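seq:
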Amino acid sequence: MSHPKTSDSIRTMFLVAACCLLLPLVNIDAAAAGDVRDIGSRRELFVDHFLIGKLDGLRLKLHEPAPTPLVPGTPSGHYATVIKDGSVFRRFDRGGSAKFDGDSLETTHYWESRDGVHWSGPDLGLFAVDGSRKNNVIVANTKWIAHNFSPFLDRRPGVPKQARFKALAGVHKGGGLFGFSSGDGIHWQKLKETPIITSRAFAFDSQNVSFWSESEQCYVCYFRTWKTSHGSLRTISRCVSEDFIRWSVPVAMNPNRPGEHLYTSGTHPYFRAPHIYVALPTRFMPDRGASTDIMFMTSRGTNHYDRTFGQAFIRPGLDPSKWGNRSNYAALNVVPTGPAEMSIYVRERRYTIRTDGFASVHATDRRGELLTRPIRFKGQQLEINYSTSAAGDIRVEIQDSAGKPIPGFSLIECPPLVGDHVERVVKWARGHDLSTLAGKPVRLRFVMIDSDLFSLRFRDSKTP
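struct:
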């Protein structure tokens, strides 16, 4: 009688052990089914943890823009906006009165460039300033408006040509933010005689930014408010609109770290991945002589900023004048100025950074791994933006949702990627055609050493 009991016990033990071995796979599949990132053919940057399932021996690294030499004649006005419109760079900034309080002596200036480096102010003749119309002034002789005139190129489908530029401007003392439109960025018309976003106490007196959101299918506006009613800490609020005229009740986003003042937001859609909003707010230190630096944040819409990185993105640097009161403000918009280069403007100084290169998955001289969350994609090829040292490399494996390598796309079948490319297609032993995997939940496994991975996207074979 004892033998059957022993046999039953052993059989039960094996069944329990087998179930335990299967549980992780079942859990992985359940997680995959319920938490698949559907990225389509969008470009994804490693500026947050959106794609990251696990990092082992790797980390997210924020990269610093490099200052370029000063170019004579570069504009240096306040609350600047830079827009790349086809082959023309357009810059808007504030000049005139030094009171900075929205008085009628303040002016808005317009500049043009063909390369984003050398600028000129066209002789527009629109307004007489200091007794002459030989100037590049596009807003003048009006209170509140020129203080923070902030345009954008309206990319909403179907927008009329005569209104392809929009702008917000105004301060709380003037009743709020007024709306403007233009066909050429030079001649502007007020949309209404009353503010389209009404006044809030001690808001609107810095740069208020807006744009059409392709991912949210609405206009969004970000502006400076106060975290507490008595005005002790500067923060950022947001509202939205379907028509740029009627706006929602603002919501405080409050991305501040403890005790941190954020003076402006500089929030805008990244031109190579417009579903990701890049924000370059000015961090204000009132107890350190009102010194400032520039931070890096991101958002994927809604009322949330991602603060993966807490350190400064652009420091004041060696120039003593940059340590003075409110001396560091980034112009609105990061713009492309070369095949592998983007530019950021801080008053008269231009900074450059690698295309997609705000941040990366970074590998030291010890090998590490990145495993993505389950993703679903469209396309035939995997393209990555990466850089390695001479001794470094990156290899890529595609796994099914249970974490098993897919035959033909395992790590051992991926030749090491060595070099420095903004756009390179990953190949395996059988080639680079991933069309059989499109639409299915998969994971990507990157094994890296002495290298950086900046972005990825899936694309069709004919996509440029």
